[in-house]
TrEMBL record:
GO terms for biological process: unsaturated fatty acid biosynthetic process. Residues 19-96 form the Cytochrome b5 heme-binding domain. Gene3D superfamilies: Cytochrome b5-like heme/steroid binding domain (3.10.120.10). One of its GO terms (cellular component) is endoplasmic reticulum membrane. GO terms for molecular function: oxidoreductase activity, acting on paired donors, with oxidation of a pair of donors resulting in the reduction of molecular oxygen to two molecules of water. Keywords: Fatty acid biosynthesis, Fatty acid metabolism, Lipid biosynthesis, Lipid metabolism, Membrane, Transmembrane, Transmembrane helix. Its main location: endoplasmic reticulum. Pathway: Lipid metabolism; polyunsaturated fatty acid biosynthesis. It comes from Prolemur simus (Greater bamboo lemur). InterPro entries: Cyt_B5-like_heme/steroid-bd, Cyt_B5-like_heme/steroid_sf, FA_desaturase_dom, Fatty_acid_desaturase. This is Cytochrome b5 heme-binding domain-containing protein.
């Protein structure tokens, strides 16, 4: 691909793999939308041509262009075995043997701590959702919505009734806000599709918002939390600024 001419390939001595090897210095040069590489488990992928077809959107990939994306890749894809099938055609090489697994300015101890935390949380089964809890949560929301409609149907739209209904709907809308968040994070069901179905029902049908819009923004928030300007939730400049320094777009 386009990288081959720029990279300095050091073919491995013998055996299984004949991948080109790259240093971080080389990889970090490919950090633009028009030329983006990223690293997952020490393997280097050129995602330039594929970014527009990425189901999670182009932007999250560009946020990681020229960087190690191992942990974030693991975190955002629910059905890893399926997602991994798409990796093979994008593979262009691997990190040179002497290179650290993350960019040099990253705190490798912090990365190691995070990976250990993930393992502990997995071992504690904390990623296995209790479906009974989520069913009751959904039931509570639907009961309040139906109750509001029935009240309107039965007692008309006087001020008293309207205020009572507003009370019911405020609770149900706040609760569906929490539940849509869990579904949007794909954390209820093991299948990505079921999470998306529930998410669409809650967002599009109950709340009148776009689930895709929310996911697109919220995944950016989680893959680059509080990193200005990549995290859209950190762009509060038009409303207010906190701290002593004016944020700058570079
Ligand atoms: C080259 C590496 C990557 C490949 C081959 C890949 C592939 C895929 C595939 C096949 C899906 C659809 C999964 C599904 O519907 O269950 C997906 C979704 C997604 N990917 Fe990636 N991805 C890559 C890298 C990344 C990176 C680095 C990020 C974040 C920084 C990311 C963020 C997402 C997000 C947010 C979704 C949407 C999840 C959803 O709403 O279901 N991906 N990706």
């Amino acid at each position: 691909g386009q990288g081959a001419s720029e990279a300095s390939p050091h073919p491995r001595s013998a055996g299984e793999s004949h991948l080109n090897t790259y240093t971080w210095q080389e990889i970090q040069r490919h950090n633009q939308q028009a030329d983006q590489w990223l690293v997952i488990n020490r393997k280097v992928y050129d995602v330039t041509g594929w970014a527009d077809r990425h189901p999670g959107g182009r932007r999250v990939l560009t946020h990681y262009a020229g960087e190690d994306a191992t942990d974030v890749f693991r975190a955002v894809h629910l059905e890893l075995d399926v997602v991994q099938l798409y990796l093979k055609p994008l593979l262009i090489g691997e990190l040179a043997p002497g290179e650290p697994s993350q960019e040099r300015h990253k705190n490798s101890q912090l990365v190691k701590d995070f990976q250990e935390l993930r393992k502990t949380v997995e071992a504690m089964n904390m990623f296995d959702a209790n479906l009974g809890f989520f069913f009751l949560h959904l039931a509570q929301i639907l009961i309040l919505e139906v109750l509001a409609w029935l009240t309107l149907y039965q007692f008309g739209s006087s001020w008293h009734v309207t205020i009572f209904i507003a009370f019911l709907l405020t609770i149900s809308q706040a609760q569906s806000g929490f539940l849509q968040h869990d579904a949007g994070h794909l954390s209820i069901f093991k299948k990505s599709k079921w999470n998306h179905l529930l998410h669409k029902f809650l967002m599009c049908h109950l709340k009148g918002l776009s689930g895709t819009w929310w996911n697109y923004g919220h995944f950016q928030h989680h893959v680059k939390t509080n990193i200005y300007p990549k995290d859209p939730d950190s762009k509060l400049g038009p409303y207010f600024l906190v701290g002593d320094l004016q944020p700058k777009c570079s």
